[in-house]
Amino acid sequence: MMDGLKISIFIFIYSSLTFLYLVPNVNGKAICLNCKALKNCKVPANFVAFAKTYDQSKLVDKTADDPADAKLDVCLGPKKKISGTLTNYICSGGTDGYCHAITNATDDMFTLELYCAMCQLRCPCEGRLSLGTGTRTRETAIFVPICLAAFYILV
Question: Where are the alpha helices (DSSP H) in 68-134?
Answer without folding.
Answer: 70-73, 109-122
